[in-house]
Structures are given as structure tokens and as C-alpha cells.
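Lab notebook, design round three. We kept the backbone fixed and only want residue identities now. Task for the bench partner: fill in a sequence for the structure below.
Input C-alpha cells:
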């Protein structure tokens, strides 16, 4: 143990550790790993998006104060655990929620507040671009946000010098490089997966739209340049080092890997970057990533086509809403427990309620809920209203109530997955699950297995999440051998020998989930009526 501790201290002092930082929906997390990819220290900062002037957003102050706080907490943990000051690392990677819209003028000023993936005001643009490109353009994609701003006649559009994602913005400010990992870039604009670049035919079609409005730019000039996993993406500048660590302890010149989106880091953190593998990330939002063997036969509005960090084609099913409403109900039960003078440890409350759900009827006994805090493109909702409904004949019990909310957290996702598995006959050998839904062992995993009707695995390391995933991509940048692919690096050097728990679907659960989904799809009309009748 002492020998291992001394080795870790030597890695810290010699600057051989690797740092990954990810901006999630509700938390910014920093993870420091050793040369063997084992987490050594971490720090986190909680934050929340704001609904301001009709948009979900985070302020620039939110971004930088949050980044500095999580970094400082991680550095303090290094000092507390190992007695050393973190002055340098071997490489750094930044990741964040994909999609959204950050538009800057020629002086580097953000011209409109950051519009996150959660906004669903781009329906007209997404529909028109999908028709123009013959390629699904979801509402949350950056190009949909840009075109909607053009359709709206927003004054800032003609002054655009650069648009990027949150990860791309942080990376740019810290390195001076206007680049983006191909996985994150694939959520801005469609990718030519053969050439590993933006699709030039579609870019030309969009440029004609810009010309019609007499705009002074072309897409190629305002989009970030694409980088593949393992490619150089700049170094931490002096200004960047002070932005990240205002104490002045961290040195400049550290190599940075391409900034990636949370989908790419989720694939990396679960070793799901090879063909016929997949993963599901379930937290505030939920998305599945299935690495395809070939192109889909049709264009589906429910399915995004994005890429792995190395540029392989991925079918992504993304639902805006997952655990937020479920968490709110758990919080309500905590309040009840406090009123009764009972223990209110949230981990125990989640465990008790989640395991109680497994006692419920496989079809939830006729209960129904929609955890829509925001709009849901898969089911055609521009806005959301959290909703729980039952009939007088429904079997209203705590077990069925909790099971209903677990099922509905995956309801929109399942609609998209059924297209992949049933209509397109996509094959997947294994699906890895990660995210908050799976913290209570065995419950979320079992529910997801029923929804997908396939084996679901959970790794212990997957609990580290996207911050660990981007740290792995940073490690790949500086530790890979000549010609070594990301798939081989992860398979042989990171995940070899790692324990994971695999669970097969229970036939009764699968049958019950299918029955629940029939009610779920029919009841969408109730959710739409709630949106119409209950204005924000």
C-alpha cells in the first residue's frame, strides 16, 4: 500500500497524471487519474440551468465559477490525500453536454445567452433542414438553433464569427484553439463518416440559405475544426491556466485532447466505441448510443446519427426527460419521512423506493406518468408538464407508483429504440448502462433490460461517468502506441479484467413494459392537453 502511494505521489509530482472535466446538466465534475487510468482524486460543483426569456441557459459566470470550484476541490483532495500540490498533469480533456448554441462575434463576445440542448423552440428549422438534407436534424442540434435564429431574423446572426458547443467554448478559452472532437461536432452538423469531416454537400446547401439572406459568412468559416480522438488539439495557455486555476499553482503548456460531448465520453467510459456495442446514459436526460455496422435504410426523426470519438457511425436516441420528475417524487417522500421523524438519508430512501418498485405489477397496474419537465421531440411535445394519472380501477400502490415512474423515465427512449431493433433490425452484442438511474444496484439495470429486451451490463468504473471518460481520451492522446486505435486502447489497456455485472431481461418484465408502453403512447394526448391547458 505504501509502495503504491509513493508511486502515485511520484506521478503527481512529475506531472504524469491525467485530468478530465465534464460539464453535466446538474454537476461539473473533475477526475484526476493515474497512468493506469485509476481515479486518484475528484471534485464537483452543482449547478442548475435557468429558464430566462424563453430559453434554458447557463450564464458565463456559471460556467467559469463552476469550473474553478470543481478544479479547486479536486486539487485540494490531491493535497489532502497525497500531501502534494498539483502543478502539472500529462494531459487535460474537457467535455460537456452536446448540442446547443453559443454564437460569438469577431471580438469573442457571446452575442446571445447560451442556448442549451434542452430548448425545443427550433421545430421549424429542424423540419426544414431535415427535408433539405434528407438527414434527420433534431431540434437541439447547433445547426437547427442557427437556422431558427436566421428564420427569426435575429440581429446577431449577421455578426457571427464562430459558433460552438459548451465543450468547444471552454476548450477555446483555455487553449485558443477553435476545434471540436468529431463526436461533439456530429451534434452540431452532419458528418461524412468516410472522410471524417462535415458533410460538404449539406454545407453547400446550407450556405445557399445564408446567401439568400445576404449573410457575410459560410459555415466552414464559423464552425469549429474537427479533431479525431488521439489527435493534438492545442495546449493550456497561460491565460487558460489562470482561468482554470486562479491560485496560480497549475502550469501552462499541458496538452489538451479534442473536447468531446457527453455522448462520446459515455461511450468511452463504458468501452462502447466498437461496432455492435452500445450504452445508455440515464440522468436528467437519457440517451442510447448503438455503434452501427451500416447506414440506416430510412431517415427517422426519433434517431440522430452521430459518431464515436474516432468517427464511427452511431445511432443515438435522445430523450430530453428522464429522472428529474422521478427525483422530485423521491424528494417528496423524503419530506414525508422528515415529518414523521424518520431517517432521511437520500441513498437509503432511493434504495428503499427503487427496490419497492420491483414488487409492483409488471405493467404498473394501470398507472401512468410523464416526467416531462421540458419538451420531448420523440413524442412531439414542444413543452412539458410533469403528469401522473390513473383510473378508478388502477392498482394504486407504492410499488406500482414507483415502478410507473421508473418505466416512464425510459418511455420516450423506448419508442426510438423499438425503431432500431424492430424496423431496422440493428444488432447489438452488449449494452453498458451508466448514470444516476443505475446507482441503486440491480433496479434501473433490470428496468432497462426489460425496456430493451437485451442484456444490460453495469461496470463499477462507469460510476465515474463522463469526467472519467474524457480523462481516458486525454490519456489516449499521450499514452497510445503508434497506430493503436481507440478501440484497442480501451479494450486492452483500460477495461481488460474489469468487473461488470450483466443482467438478462426477465420475460415477465419485458411483457409488462410492452403493455405499459401501449398506454404510454395512447396517453400522450393527455400530456398534450396538459400543455395546452396549463400555461407556464
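Proposed sequence:
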Amino acid at each position: 500500500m505504501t509502495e503504491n502511494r509513493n508511486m502515485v505521489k511520484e506521478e503527481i509530482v512529475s506531472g504524469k497524471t491525467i485530468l478530465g472535466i465534464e460539464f453535466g446538466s446538474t454537476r461539473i465534475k473533475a477526475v484526476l487519474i493515474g497512468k493506469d487510468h485509476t481515479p486518484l482524486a475528484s471534485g464537483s460543483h452543482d449547478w442548475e440551468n435557468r429558464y430566462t426569456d424563453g430559453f434554458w441557459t447557463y450564464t458565463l459566470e456559471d460556467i467559469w465559477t463552476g469550473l474553478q470550484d470543481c478544479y479547486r476541490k479536486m486539487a485540494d483532495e490531491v493535497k489532502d490525500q497525497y500531501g502534494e500540490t498539483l502543478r502539472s498533469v500529462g494531459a487535460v480533456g474537457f467535455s460537456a453536454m452536446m448540442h446547443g448554441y453559443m454564437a460569438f462575434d469577431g471580438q469573442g463576445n457571446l452575442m446571445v445567452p447560451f442556448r442549451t440542448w434542452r430548448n425545443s423552440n427550433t421545430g421549424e428549422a429542424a423540419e426544414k433542414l431535415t427535408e433539405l438534407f434528407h438527414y434527420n436534424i433534431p431540434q437541439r442540434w447547433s445547426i437547427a438553433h442557427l437556422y431558427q435564429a436566421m428564420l427569426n431574423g435575429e440581429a446577431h446572426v449577421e455578426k457571427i464569427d464562430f459558433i460552438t458547443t459548451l465543450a468547444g467554448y471552454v476548450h477555446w478559452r483555455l487553449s485558443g484553439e477553435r476545434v471540436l472532437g468529431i463526436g461533439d461536432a456530429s451534434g452540431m452538423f452532419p458528418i461524412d463518416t468516410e472522410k471524417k469531416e462535415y458533410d460538404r454537400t449539406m454545407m453547400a446547401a446550407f450556405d445557399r440559405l445564408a446567401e439568400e439572406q445576404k449573410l457575410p459568412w459560410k459555415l466552414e468559416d464559423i464552425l469549429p475544426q474537427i479533431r479525431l480522438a488521439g489527435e493534438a488539439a492545442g495546449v493550456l495557455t497561460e491565460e487558460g491556466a489562470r482561468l482554470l486555476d486562479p491560485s496560480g499553482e497549475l502550469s501552462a503548456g499541458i496538452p489538451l485532447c479534442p473536447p468531446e460531448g457527453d455522448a462520446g465520453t459515455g461511450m468511452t467510459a463504458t468501452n462502447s466505441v466498437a461496432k455492435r456495442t452500445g450504452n445508455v446514459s440515464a440522468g436528467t436526460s437519457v440517451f442510447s448510443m448503438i455503434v452501427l455496422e451500416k447506414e440506416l435504410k430510412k431517415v427517422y426523426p426519433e434517431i440522430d446519427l452521430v459518431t464515436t470519438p474516432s468517427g464511427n457511425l452511431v445511432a443515438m436516441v435522445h430523450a430530453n426527460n428522464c429522472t428529474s420528475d422521478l427525483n422530485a417524487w423521491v424528494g417528496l417522500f423524503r419530506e414525508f419521512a422528515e415529518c414523521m421523524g424518520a431517517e432521511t438519508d437520500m441513498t437509503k430512501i432511493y434504495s428503499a423506493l427503487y427496490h419497492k418498485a420491483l414488487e409492483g405489477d409488471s405493467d404498473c397496474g394501470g398507472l401512468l406518468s410523464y416526467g416531462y419537465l421540458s419538451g420531448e421531440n420523440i413524442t412531439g411535445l414542444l413543452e412539458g408538464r410533469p403528469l401522473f394519472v390513473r383510473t378508478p380501477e388502477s392498482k394504486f400502490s407504492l410499488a406500482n407508483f414507483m415502478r410507473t415512474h421508473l418505466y416512464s423515465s425510459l418511455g420516450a427512449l423506448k419508442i426510438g429504440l423499438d425503431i432500431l431493433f424492430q424496423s431496422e433490425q440493428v444488432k447489438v452484442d452488449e449494452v453498458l448502462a451508466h448514470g444516476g438511474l443505475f446507482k441503486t444496484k440491480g433496479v434501473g439495470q433490470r428496468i432497462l433490460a426489460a425496456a430493451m429486451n437485451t442484456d444490460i451490463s453495469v461496470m463499477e468504473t462507469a460510476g465515474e461517468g463522463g469526467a472519467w471518460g474524457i480523462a481516458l481520451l486525454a490519456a489516449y492522446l499521450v499514452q497510445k502506441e503508434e497506430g493503436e486505435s481507440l478501440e484497442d486502447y480501451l479494450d486492452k489497456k483500460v477495461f481488460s479484467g474489469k468487473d461488470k455485472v450483466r443482467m438478462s431481461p426477465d420475460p415477465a418484465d419485458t411483457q409488462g413494459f410492452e403493455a405499459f408502453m401501449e398506454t404510454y403512447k395512447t396517453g400522450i394526448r393527455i400530456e398534450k392537453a396538459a400543455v395546452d391547458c396549463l400555461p407556464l
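Keep this in mind before ordering anything: The chain has a mean pLDDT of 95.
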